[in-house]
Amino acid sequence: MFIGREHEMSVLEETYNQPGFQMTVIYGRRRIGKSTLITEFIKDGLDGKLKCMTTNVGKWWGMGHDRVPTDIDVVGIDEIGKKAILGECKFKNEQIDKPVYEDLMNRKGLIDRKYEEVQYMYFSLSGFSKWVVENADAEKVSLLTLDDLYS
Prior knowledge:
- The chain has a single domain (6-15, 22-144), classed as 3-Layer(aba) Sandwich (Trna Endonuclease, Chain: A, domain 1), CATH 3.40.1350.
- The protein is built from four helices and five strands, in the order ααβββαβαβ.
- The chain is an alpha/beta fold and 151 residues long.
- It has helices spanning 6-17, 34-43, 98-105, 130-135, and strands at residues 56-63, 69-78, 83-90, 116-124, 141-144.
- The longest helix is centred in the N-terminal third of the chain and has 12 residues, at 6-17.
- A five-stranded mixed beta sheet has the order 1-2-3-4-5, with helices on both faces.
Protein backbone atom coordinates (compact mmCIF):
# COMPACT_ATOMS: atom_id res chain seq x y z
CA MET A 1 0.00 0.00 0.00
CA PHE A 2 1.30 3.47 -0.92
CA ILE A 3 -0.19 6.27 1.18
CA GLY A 4 0.73 9.73 2.36
CA ARG A 5 2.72 10.82 -0.69
CA GLU A 6 0.03 12.67 -2.64
CA HIS A 7 1.96 15.96 -2.58
CA GLU A 8 5.19 14.34 -3.80
CA MET A 9 3.33 12.47 -6.55
CA SER A 10 1.64 15.67 -7.72
CA VAL A 11 5.01 17.47 -7.84
CA LEU A 12 6.47 14.62 -9.93
CA GLU A 13 3.47 14.67 -12.26
CA GLU A 14 3.56 18.44 -12.62
CA THR A 15 7.29 18.42 -13.35
CA TYR A 16 7.02 15.55 -15.80
CA ASN A 17 4.20 17.21 -17.77
CA GLN A 18 5.98 20.53 -18.27
CA PRO A 19 7.52 21.10 -21.69
CA GLY A 20 11.28 20.99 -22.09
CA PHE A 21 13.87 19.92 -19.56
CA GLN A 22 12.75 20.00 -15.94
CA MET A 23 14.69 19.15 -12.81
CA THR A 24 13.48 17.95 -9.44
CA VAL A 25 15.41 16.26 -6.59
CA ILE A 26 14.38 13.37 -4.32
CA TYR A 27 16.50 13.19 -1.22
CA GLY A 28 16.31 11.86 2.31
CA ARG A 29 17.84 9.43 4.72
CA ARG A 30 18.04 5.71 3.95
CA ARG A 31 14.92 3.54 3.85
CA ILE A 32 12.26 6.27 3.70
CA GLY A 33 10.86 5.28 0.30
CA LYS A 34 12.69 7.32 -2.36
CA SER A 35 12.83 4.40 -4.82
CA THR A 36 9.26 3.40 -3.95
CA LEU A 37 8.11 6.93 -4.77
CA ILE A 38 9.73 6.69 -8.20
CA THR A 39 8.31 3.20 -8.77
CA GLU A 40 4.81 4.40 -7.89
CA PHE A 41 5.23 7.38 -10.21
CA ILE A 42 6.08 5.02 -13.07
CA LYS A 43 3.05 2.86 -12.24
CA ASP A 44 0.95 5.94 -13.01
CA GLY A 45 1.53 5.02 -16.65
CA LEU A 46 -1.83 3.28 -16.21
CA ASP A 47 -3.34 6.77 -16.34
CA GLY A 48 -1.64 7.55 -19.65
CA LYS A 49 1.09 9.79 -18.24
CA LEU A 50 3.95 7.76 -19.66
CA LYS A 51 4.80 6.65 -23.18
CA CYS A 52 3.20 3.25 -22.58
CA MET A 53 0.63 1.66 -20.29
CA THR A 54 2.88 0.36 -17.54
CA THR A 55 1.24 -2.67 -15.94
CA ASN A 56 4.24 -4.16 -14.13
CA VAL A 57 7.08 -2.34 -12.36
CA GLY A 58 10.17 -3.75 -10.73
CA LYS A 59 13.94 -4.12 -10.97
CA TRP A 60 16.00 -6.27 -13.31
CA TRP A 61 19.19 -8.25 -12.66
CA GLY A 62 20.98 -10.40 -15.18
CA MET A 63 23.88 -10.69 -17.56
CA GLY A 64 24.84 -7.69 -19.64
CA HIS A 65 25.71 -7.85 -23.32
CA ASP A 66 29.32 -8.38 -22.19
CA ARG A 67 28.27 -11.36 -19.96
CA VAL A 68 29.04 -9.38 -16.79
CA PRO A 69 26.26 -9.25 -14.14
CA THR A 70 24.36 -5.95 -14.26
CA ASP A 71 21.09 -4.42 -13.14
CA ILE A 72 18.43 -1.91 -14.15
CA ASP A 73 17.05 0.05 -11.18
CA VAL A 74 13.49 0.52 -12.46
CA VAL A 75 11.73 -1.35 -15.25
CA GLY A 76 8.16 -0.59 -16.26
CA ILE A 77 6.53 -3.12 -18.60
CA ASP A 78 3.51 -2.77 -20.87
CA GLU A 79 2.55 -6.41 -21.46
CA ILE A 80 -0.15 -5.59 -24.02
CA GLY A 81 1.84 -3.13 -26.13
CA LYS A 82 5.13 -5.02 -25.59
CA LYS A 83 6.88 -1.82 -24.51
CA ALA A 84 9.21 -0.99 -21.62
CA ILE A 85 10.49 1.96 -19.63
CA LEU A 86 13.99 1.67 -18.17
CA GLY A 87 15.13 3.83 -15.26
CA GLU A 88 18.35 4.61 -13.44
CA CYS A 89 18.35 6.07 -9.90
CA LYS A 90 21.43 7.83 -8.55
CA PHE A 91 21.18 9.36 -5.10
CA LYS A 92 24.76 10.54 -4.80
CA ASN A 93 26.40 13.92 -4.37
CA GLU A 94 27.54 13.94 -7.98
CA GLN A 95 25.72 14.61 -11.20
CA ILE A 96 24.74 11.89 -13.60
CA ASP A 97 27.34 12.14 -16.35
CA LYS A 98 27.99 10.52 -19.71
CA PRO A 99 29.14 7.07 -18.41
CA VAL A 100 26.00 6.53 -16.27
CA TYR A 101 23.79 7.85 -19.07
CA GLU A 102 25.39 5.56 -21.64
CA ASP A 103 25.34 2.55 -19.29
CA LEU A 104 21.54 2.58 -19.19
CA MET A 105 21.23 3.32 -22.91
CA ASN A 106 23.55 0.36 -23.61
CA ARG A 107 21.29 -1.98 -21.65
CA LYS A 108 18.73 -1.84 -24.44
CA GLY A 109 17.51 -5.33 -25.24
CA LEU A 110 18.62 -6.90 -21.97
CA ILE A 111 15.27 -7.33 -20.24
CA ASP A 112 13.61 -9.23 -23.08
CA ARG A 113 13.86 -8.52 -26.77
CA LYS A 114 10.09 -8.80 -27.15
CA TYR A 115 9.75 -5.38 -25.47
CA GLU A 116 10.53 -2.16 -27.29
CA GLU A 117 12.18 0.33 -24.94
CA VAL A 118 10.14 3.48 -25.50
CA GLN A 119 11.35 5.63 -22.63
CA TYR A 120 14.44 6.02 -20.45
CA MET A 121 14.12 7.81 -17.11
CA TYR A 122 17.04 9.09 -15.06
CA PHE A 123 16.46 10.08 -11.42
CA SER A 124 19.27 12.03 -9.78
CA LEU A 125 19.86 13.65 -6.41
CA SER A 126 22.49 16.05 -7.77
CA GLY A 127 21.28 16.77 -11.28
CA PHE A 128 22.86 16.13 -14.63
CA SER A 129 26.06 17.14 -16.33
CA LYS A 130 26.02 19.57 -19.22
CA TRP A 131 26.84 16.66 -21.56
CA VAL A 132 23.75 14.69 -20.44
CA VAL A 133 21.44 17.71 -20.70
CA GLU A 134 22.72 18.55 -24.20
CA ASN A 135 22.72 14.97 -25.53
CA ALA A 136 19.60 13.43 -24.00
CA ASP A 137 17.06 12.52 -26.69
CA ALA A 138 14.00 14.54 -25.62
CA GLU A 139 11.69 12.06 -27.37
CA LYS A 140 12.85 9.05 -25.35
CA VAL A 141 14.68 10.36 -22.27
CA SER A 142 13.33 11.99 -19.12
CA LEU A 143 15.79 13.61 -16.71
CA LEU A 144 14.28 14.01 -13.27
CA THR A 145 15.72 15.42 -10.08
CA LEU A 146 13.31 16.10 -7.27
CA ASP A 147 14.69 19.15 -5.39
CA ASP A 148 11.35 20.73 -4.57
CA LEU A 149 9.67 17.66 -3.05
CA TYR A 150 10.44 18.57 0.53
CA SER A 151 10.70 22.35 0.30
